[in-house]
Amino acid sequence: MIDLICYTNVDWIPRIRPAPRTRDWMDASPEAYAYRCLPLTIANTHGWEVLNPCDFSVMWNGGLAASDVEIRIHTNAHDGSHPVSLFGLGTITFHIQGLFKTSPEWNLWAGGSPNYFKDGCQALTGIIETDWCPFTFTVNWKLTRPNVWIDWYENEPMCFIFPIQRQAILDVQPRIAPFSEAPEFHDQFLRWSRSRDAFHEQVTKHPPAQSKDQWQKHYYQGKDMDGKIHPDHKTKLRLPEFSR
Length: 244
Description:
Blueprint: E1 4-7, E2 16-18, H1 24-27, H2 38-44, E3 48-51, E4 56-60, E5 69-73, E6 91-95, E7 99-102, E8 106-111, E9 121-123, E10 126-128, E11 138-143, E12 150-152, E13 157-165, H3 168-171, H4 183-205, H5 218-221
């Protein structure tokens, strides 16, 4: 089991939830077809979201000083959780109301929610050694459109976290290899490519009556071209709530 603990003081009230599958822009896609992309929906739910504690508006005048960002708080919230202009460079900063601790040799990835977009600002991403670090971290967003007021809403996601093993990326041995090294893998790829072309041609000539028949489902079902179902394939993630 991998630990992910959020230690809090009496007056800290972190708003943390398992990240939801849905996104407004995916809901708005015709027949919600964006949800057919399993890699998108798995990424959407691959961690926990920390939520913004208050309604506020922010504007950046394009300068590099912290004073070049103006923040107007619209709702009551604990003062320590308000976003602030701290580092300059057109950024705003959220202080996390908790100190995260992970199991030995595990880091914490912290950034914006995958496939979640906010016009005029972009989350910065950090990786923190939370197995030993006795310090909190900040969440920072870079403003990208000067002289425009950007509205933030209470309980909007402002941070996305998940543990990653520190050594794993250093153990990766990347290389480029010819398909001749893996003839069976190549054969499966060629069969898939031909079937995909044929399927698209069929759909174009004879559009299916039902939307569920408008896309192939090999990857979604975890099925290779020999019909083998891979037992550890995931079509959804159900992460636990932070227990108290």
